[in-house]
Design a protein that fits this description.
single chain, 403 residues, Methylamine Dehydrogenase, Chain H, 5-stranded antiparallel β-sheet, 35 strands, 45% strand, globular, disordered N terminus, signal, 3-carboxymuconate cyclase
Length: 403
């Protein structure tokens, strides 16, 4: 499949109210929604001047054009424990460094210990408007964020010398003060040395009653990873209980990206040491236990996961393998494997909209960053969208969709 992307041209807006500079717009544009803001995919560049790349999604599922919006913060690189050098690609070693709610986007700034909040444009969802100023996170090296619209609360996970999670309220006027919810004694540095022994993801359970944090173990030092479960005080509260509940499910080692299984209290969480797990969250004890373990043959670092409502399955990616693995939602079997032939060295963050799967490859500095678009019903790649003209390279990480 040949790479499919549009030629780029510089476009400088002079509209009042835009909070960003360095806007790049691609031309010509592809098929878009006839009315409303349209679908958009967002990627974080994670550069020294951190930015969000916004790319419209056409009716055909393909990506067209794009622009960048600065976050007001700095990106960051963790340290690769095998080389003692900056870790990009997979610079943050996390899932969920950028997330979207119904009308807001949140992005971490690992290098400046802040969180940025944007309002998504009501008539064009590629347009982002910063709300207030980036909020200071009371920890070091934030890598993952989760938001609850039901409770108007946003939580950030950070994994440096001061590791843990902190949460704040949010309103149309901006973010409240971040307050620490949980502290994790990882014995890390800032920036952290990984990818093991670091936070992987924070996310809320499907009913917004609990905050889940996945923390990777380190098999080389016999350090056990765990899942942290933090309960809200009551059904309406935006504050948490004072202590979390931690579980180390049997047979797991490097727990990473997780998704909720619809209409259940079950969790699907990848494990970079062997593949994927199907876990049950006990709503009485808040303990997490393993129900099923799936070893993925030939895997090297299966870390990211996304749930497909269209196929009732989970897709996972591997940072060192250029393929998509589809797994049944109960974690019992591999449903499909798609080996991609587009030259990417591996895939990290993944998002799904309808039948279309979007997988980010940050490249490696020589191979440019790109998003592969796959039609999950046909089981084939339909586009390989290059990101270098939009300022995204091997440090890029995090991806979210507005639909």
């Amino acid at each position: 499949m040949r790479s499919t992307f549009s030629p780029f041209c510089l476009w400088i807006p002079f509209l009042a109210g835009f909070t960003y500079a360095n806007i790049i717009n691609a031309c010509p544009k592809g098929p878009q929604e006839s009315s409303g803001p349209g679908k958009t995919i967002y990627v974080q560049t994670n550069e020294q001047q951190n930015s969000i790349v916004s790319i419209p999604i056409g009716h055909d599922g393909k990506l067209y054009g794009g622009m960048t919006t600065t976050t007001g913060g700095r990106g960051g690189d963790s340290i690769d424990g095998t080389t003692n050098k900056p870790a990009g690609p997979d610079a943050l070693s996390s899932q969920g460094s950028v997330i979207v709610t119904d009308k807001y986007l949140f992005a971490v700034n690992a290098g400046s210990n802040t969180l940025s909040m944007f309002r998504i444009g009501e008539t064009n969802s590629t347009h982002l408007y910063m709300v207030g100023k980036p909020a200071i996170v009371p920890g070091e090296f934030p890598v993952t964020v989760a938001a609850s619209v039901k409770r108007d609360v946003v939580c950030v996970g950070y994994t440096g010398a001061k590791a843990g999670t902190s949460c704040a309220s949010f309103t149309p006027e901006g973010l409240g003060q971040m307050k620490q919810a949980v502290e994790f004694d990882l014995g890390q540095t800032t920036p952290p040395k990984g990818p093991t022994n670091t936070l992987a993801q924070v996310f809320f359970t499907a009913n917004d009653t609990r905050l889940i944090t996945t923390v990777k173990g380190d098999p080389n030092t016999n350090k056990t990873g765990f899942v942290s479960v933090l309960l809200f005080k009551d059904s309406r509260s935006s504050t948490f209980e004072s202590l979390d509940t931690r579980s180390s499910p049997s047979g797991t080692a490097v727990l990473f990206g997780g998704v909720n299984i619809p209409d259940t209290s079950d969790l699907f969480i990848t494990d970079a040491s062997f593949g994927a797990t199907f876990l049950n969250l006990n709503l009485t004890t808040d303990k997490v236990s393993i129900q099923r373990k799936l070893v993925i043959e030939g895997q090297k670092a299966t870390c990211w996961a996304a749930y497909s409502h269209a196929r009732e399955s989970v897709f996972v990616t591997d940072a060192a393998a250029n393929r998509l693995i589809e797994i049944s939602e109960d974690g019992s079997k591999i449903m499909s494997t798609l080996d991609l032939k587009n030259g990417d060295p591996g895939l990290i963050d993944i998002q799904i909209s309808g039948r279309f799967v979007y997988a980010l490859s940050p490249g490696n500095g020589t191979t440019p960053a790109a998003i592969t678009v796959v039609d999950s019903f046909q089981g084939r790649q339909i586009q390989h969208f290059m990101l270098n003209k939009l300022g995204a390279g091997k440090r890029s990480q995090g991806m979210a969709i507005f639909e």
